[in-house]
Amino acid sequence: MTTDPYNIACTHGFIQSSCSDCNLKGLCLPIAMDLKDIDRVDHIIKRSRPIQAGEHIYRTGDGFTSVFAVRSGSIKTYLLDDDGVEQVTGFYLPGEILGFDGIGNNTHGCNVVSMETSTLCEIPFERIEELSLQIPVLQRHFFQLMSQQIESDHQMMMTLSKKNAEGRVATLLVSLSNRFSRRNLSATSLRLPMSRMDIGNFLGLTIETVSRTFSRLQKEGIINVDGREIHINDHEKLQAVCHASK
Amino acid sequence: MTTDPYNIACTHGFIQSSCSDCNLKGLCLPIAMDLKDIDRVDHIIKRSRPIQAGEHIYRTGDGFTSVFAVRSGSIKTYLLDDDGVEQVTGFYLPGEILGFDGIGNNTHGCNVVSMETSTLCEIPFERIEELSLQIPVLQRHFFQLMSQQIESDHQMMMTLSKKNAEGRVATLLVSLSNRFSRRNLSATSLRLPMSRMDIGNFLGLTIETVSRTFSRLQKEGIINVDGREIHINDHEKLQAVCHASK
DNA sequence: TTTTCCTGTTGACCTAAATCAAGCAACCGA
DNA sequence: TCGGTTGCTTGATTTAGGTCAACAGGAAAA
């Protein structure tokens, strides 16, 4: 079931692109990097074949060798505790990088699975470390990416610890909206890549509560819901609901 | 109220120590670093004067220049959202490093306050970045430290999202016990450096629930509680309670 | 076509923890 | 010594969200 991380490289030949052509490079590489250096990074990156929905990229305990940038599709990461309880720890969209939790003890700290057909860029971390010694802006960039992950995880702790169901759901919607619009997609109409189950798991709620919360937000006219299709009618109000607390 | 981060360096002269003498160096520096390199790191680190309980090290929005290692005492970090709601995001004990959330946008992402009289080592981050270019094991070490922060934040998301009050409190106690024993202190008898208020805030519970949970764990014979003084009678059972879920 | 499966929605009821309230012990400044 | 404050505990009551149950629509299989 787990995709061999050494074997997800594209073997079709029809996905060929380089970092310098990639319209996501502003997200996963430092903006102030010159072409020559981008090229050096480009050469160590392995572009994956399409990963199917439900296919795993790696699992907890697998040896850590790489971090991964999402090129297309969407990815979720989750922990499994000793009792088999699952905790979704993040959703990753194109331009976002995952896998930083594996560096600490050279072993991946979570499970990573594709939520739809997705493509990834595999970034061998040791090679990045070597390059970082020669390209200071690259070193800085990876420190920054990890730092941003820490900040967003702390925001998530705030959400889980202090907000009620409405606040949690609204916070997720606003986050997704912002991340879509960063890629020049609509900030008001979006298709959720994840199930109600995953949303509930991520937000510490049951699917029933997630469903009821969507319905309530719709009844209040703030959003329109049609399955996974969400339209945000009133961004202001949604923003306000984000602060709804226990 | 905020301590000027540029001005917490020790001016007394009576706290003089170097990294190579420090019995915490195994925690904040790579074990496999040779003396010459330790010495280079040593020279960029500023050791702080004692910070009083309640004194802030820095606040959200302050310019980021350094991360900090706790030398003695204990530190808490917390977020304040727009409505002034506080979220404690971490407790830091001697040998632990905080401040990694500031790298992402060159601005500190949280507030940091001392919970008792503490001393810190200020680690100017740009200098570490420079040294890291020359000492690969140091670069790797800082990537690892940040990665460990991410992993522990993900564990915290699991705790907040899936565990009931007993599970949360037990998880905190086990974490503290492990961290104390890592410094060769007792794993069974510990003095909590933080108030019930801080515990509740961190764990997403009210102080009343925290208090009741301590009482219940005591009634079950798993721990003994005397104010902030905790004795763990049955580590096994406490470990089991950690998995108690909603 | 029907059947099954899967995901999501809605309703009725229940419970863990929040809220509200009271009180106690330790500490501190007057 | 006293009055006030702070930190913590305990009890009574309320409530948000969990649990259990039923059902609906769409997709895929029979």
Which key phrases capture this entry?
homodimer, 246 residues, alpha+beta, four-stranded antiparallel sheet, 11 strands, 20% strand, DNA-binding
Explain how this protein is built.
The structure is a homodimer of 246-residue chains. With 246 residues, chain A is an alpha+beta fold. Chain A is built from 8 helices and 11 strands. In chain A, the strands form 3 sheets. Chain A has a 4-stranded antiparallel β-sheet. The N terminus of chain A is likely disordered. The interface between A and B is large, with 46 and 46 residues. The first copy, chain A, binds a DNA duplex (30 and 30 nucleotides) through helix 7.
Set out the fold topology.
The structure is a homodimer of 246-residue chains.
Chain A lengths: L24 H4 L6 H10 L1 E2 L8 E3 L7 E7 L2 E6 L5 E7 L4 E2 L12 E4 L4 E6 H10 L1 H27 L2 H18 L6 E3 L4 H8 L3 H13 L3 E4 L2 E4 L2 H7 L5
Antiparallel strand pairs in A: 1-8, 2-7, 3-6, 3-8, 4-5, 4-7, 9-11, 10-11
Chain A binds a DNA duplex (30 and 30 nucleotides) through helix 7.
| Main beta-sheet annotation of chain A | 4 strands, antiparallel
Radius of gyration of chain A over all CA atoms, rounded: 19 Å
How is the largest sheet of chain A built, in terms of strand order?
A: 1-8-3-6
Q: Helical proportion of chain A?
A: 25-40%
Tally of helical runs of chain A: 8
Q: Which regions of chain A have little confidence, pLDDT < 50, spanning 5+ residues?
A: 1-6, 10-14
Number of strands of chain A: 11
The multimeric state of the shown protein is homodimer
The separation of the N and C termini of chain A measures: 40 Å
Query: Which class of secondary structure composition applies to the elements of chain A?
Result: alpha+beta
**Overall 3D geometry of chain A?**
globular
Name the average pLDDT of chain A: 93
Order of helices and strands of chain A: HHEEEEEEEEHHHEHHEEH
**Strand residues, percent of chain A:** 15-25%
